[in-house]
Amino acid sequence: MSERNSADAVGASTEVGWQMAYCRAVEMANFKGGFLMRTAHELRSPLNKIISLQQMIIEGLCDDIEEERQFVTDAYAASMKMLEYLDLMIRVSKIEMGRLQPQLQSVSLAEMLTQVKELTQVQVADRNLRLTVEPSAADSRVQADPAWLRNVLTNLIEMAIEGGDLGTLHISTGLSRDGSTYAIWLTDDRSTTPWQEPVELPPPSEFTLDDTLSASLRMSLVQAMIKGMQGQLAVVSATDEGTQLQITLPLAVSP
């Protein structure tokens, strides 16, 4: 009887394992499909710019040699912007495939948040925003890649800054109930935020060389880096009164 119970337990454990693997595979497929679609969508704008400029040169529509040189210069700049998009796509793909690994180590949250605030305070002030950071305990440490975590936090703050003027961004941290992870909360008190993905992709906008990487592409990179550090990113609250993101990371491994 005990052997039968043992076999049933093994079978149930195997089934749970297969279900978890299936869910991870579906999640990965959805992420890759969405990322590929959005990247292709973003690439259309600079590519259309390059094609239109080259077409005007080929058809002799330039007023003079100076205008032709300007078109060539603009086409080159648009090519560099498209290369920037492709580099980001390659980086995300490498992280997802495990070919680009984070250098995990013990990271002080207090020190990290101080660095991030210093890196973004000028941009925050320029947009008439406030960035408040709730002090973390001196011994609050997570297992992460410091460069990746700094990139994640600055990207999320910069994306929120681009969402408009006025408002307050707040960062706080806390230990999970089971004590195995630390959470970093980023709260934006405005009703709309670029952290929230649009349901439908907008038509490709008129491309300008001042365009920065879109929120969609940067959010894909942020998600990939957090996942690479064995963490999670979730929207825990999204209302008319604001949006709150939660980044969950493992506690630092004791030496």
Could you state the order of secondary-structure elements as H and E? HHEHEEHEEHEE
Ranges where pLDDT stays below 50 over 5 or more residues in a row are: 198-202
Please give the order of strands in the largest beta sheet. 2-4-5-7-6
Q: What's the count of strands?
A: 7
Number of helices: 5
- For the record, the count of structural domains works out to 2
Find the structural class using helix and strand composition.
alpha+beta
Q: What is the CATH class name of the largest domain?
A: Alpha Beta
Please bin the fraction of helical residues.
40-55%
CATH architecture of the largest domain: 2-Layer Sandwich
**Span between termini:** 45 Å
Topology, element by element:
Blueprint (H helix, E strand, L loop, with lengths): L1 H57 L6 H33 L7 E4 H18 L3 E4 L7 E4 L1 H16 L6 E8 L5 E8 L26 H14 L3 E8 L2 E9 L5
Parallel strand pairs: 2-4
Antiparallel strand pairs: 1-3, 4-5, 5-7, 6-7
Provide structural commentary.
The protein is an alpha+beta fold. The protein folds into two domains: 2-97, Helix Hairpins (Orthogonal Bundle), CATH 1.10.287; 105-250, Heat Shock Protein 90, CATH 3.30.565.10. It contains five helices and seven strands, in the order ααβαββαββαββ. The chain has helices at residues 2-58, 65-97, 109-126, 146-161, 215-228; strands at 105-108, 130-133, 141-144, 168-175, 181-188, 232-239, 242-250. The strands form two sheets. A five-stranded mixed β-sheet has the order 2-4-5-7-6. Helix 1 runs antiparallel to helix 2 and helix 3 (109-126) runs parallel beside helix 4. The protein is globular, with a radius of gyration of 23 Å.
